[in-house]
Amino acid sequence: MFGWEFPPHILGGLGTASYGLTKGMSMQPDMKITFVIPKPWGDEDQSFLKIIGACNTPVVWRDVQWEYVRDRLGKAMSHEDYYAMRDHIYADFSYLRTNDLGCIDFSGRYPDNLLEEINNYSIAAGVIARTFPCDIIHSHDWLTYPAGIHAKYATGKPLVIHVHATDFDRSRGNVNPQVFGIEKDGMHHADHIITVSDLTRKTVIEKYGIDPSKVTTVHNAVEPLSKEIEGIKPLRGTDDKVVTFLGRITMQKGPEYFVEAAHRVLQKAKNVRFVMAGSGDKMNEMIRLAAARKITDRFHFTGFLKGKQVYEMLKSSDVYVMPSVSEPFGISPLEAMQVGVPTIVSKQSGCAEILTNIFKIDYWDIDAMADAIYSIITYPSLYQYLKTAGKSEVDEIKWEYAGDKVRQIYNNFAYK
After folding, report:
1. Three-class DSSP labels, 62-107
2. pLDDT, position 237
3. Which of 27, 4, 17, 23 is nearest to 351 (CA)?
4. Tens digit of pLDDT for each residue in 2-36?
5. Which range, of 87-91, 267-271, 316-320, averages the lowest pLDDT?
6. Contact call for residues 187 and 204 (beta carbons, < 8 A)
7. Of 52, 126, 125, 130, whose CA–CA distance to 87 is shortest?
8. Buried b or exposed e, range 371-401, using 16+ CB within 10 angstroms
9. In 3-state terms, what secondary structure has residue 348?
């Protein structure tokens, strides 16, 4: 598998989904997963898979002492793996910026030179694919499609790509031609395509011209709560109701509709506070919008939250809202429901396809959003029903089941 991020170092939902799916798949007794990321940090959970770093993969033959190289990389991989890697270095990419070990440096994030890193990652992928035998190549999201293609043609093994989002989702239809080209190339070279929702499947078929028989939906799931998470206490310093938006503050997530709905609610109820938890390129614009609506005394910005902080925020909330304009799936509503928070999502989100005990509204319908928020914070019986029924529902949405569906796809398509 090729991915771009892995917990605990995540910047979005991709890493969370990669972790959950691989852990669910690892429950199959004959499944062995080697997961490749550009730059491991060393504290990833490798109890159920093996993590390989592209940054630790020599791609250029250097006139150096291999014993010295092995010792320098000893902490990153075993000596046995390193000798195997050395034997499969197959090209001299003299134009690459490599270190003294012949390895490419990666940021481990989403840098300004992202397209360059994607290309470099695909070069390392060819070496890795020839070094570590596999039956299936599985690429997560557009950043790793070139790596998957390179690995496929280096080994002859079938390629499955996993579409977690498309540029149509991220850009509200104003797609980046380079990103679109990478996505389309990946889809056409793949032996099969997995999408995280029927909404995304429709986009893949209609916008990228893919044969419907080649595309299967496997909805995301949610990890069971650990004892540590279950033990987190709400951070409440007020009796006011708390309504939360948690995610990237970007055009895709529809943050302006949340601010406008907050304004509507505050015209009718004074005992409520709104929280926008996250960061993104529209954050300053949302601060100005809240100020323009004169609700800043009741509207709070936390900045980016991760790990334990996310659950502290969710457990401190009375309502969770995800007003995304186009959301391929959306794991955060499931996480909110896990801790008993009544949830509102846009009808334009993939998770709306599998959830019942929630409010579903059009992202643009701020009156309906405001009415749903007001109803939950005003009527205790409705709040209690959504709290209880929502948790019971989401507790049955498991990554193990998603992993079984992925395995069926491997069996049905990849081995033909």
Report:
1. CCCCHHHHHHHCCCCCCHHHHHHHHHCCCCCCCCCCECCCCEECCC
2. 73
3. 17
4. 999 999 998 778 999 999 999 999 999 999 999 99
5. 87-91
6. yes
7. 130
8. bbbbbbbeeeeebeebbeebbebbeebbbbe
9. coil
Alpha carbon distance 169, 156 (integer Å): 32
Check pLDDT > 80 for residue 153. yes
- Could you give the CA distance from residue 273 to residue 302 in angstroms, rounded to a whole number? 13
One-letter amino acid for residue 378 of the chain: T
CA–CA gap between residue 224 and residue 364 (Å, rounded): 32
**Cut 0.90: pTM above it:** no
The C-alpha atoms of residue 185 and residue 180 are separated, in whole angstroms, by 8
Stretch 203-209: mean pLDDT: 97
Q: Which of 328, 402, 409 is nearest to 159 (CA)?
A: 409
Average pLDDT, the chain: 90
Alpha-carbon span 52 to 32, nearest angstrom = 14
Asked if 164 and 186 count as a contact pair (C-beta separation under 8 A), the reply is no
* Residue labelled with tokens 């020839």: 130
Q: Beta strand 159-163 with 192-195: parallel, antiparallel or unpaired?
A: parallel
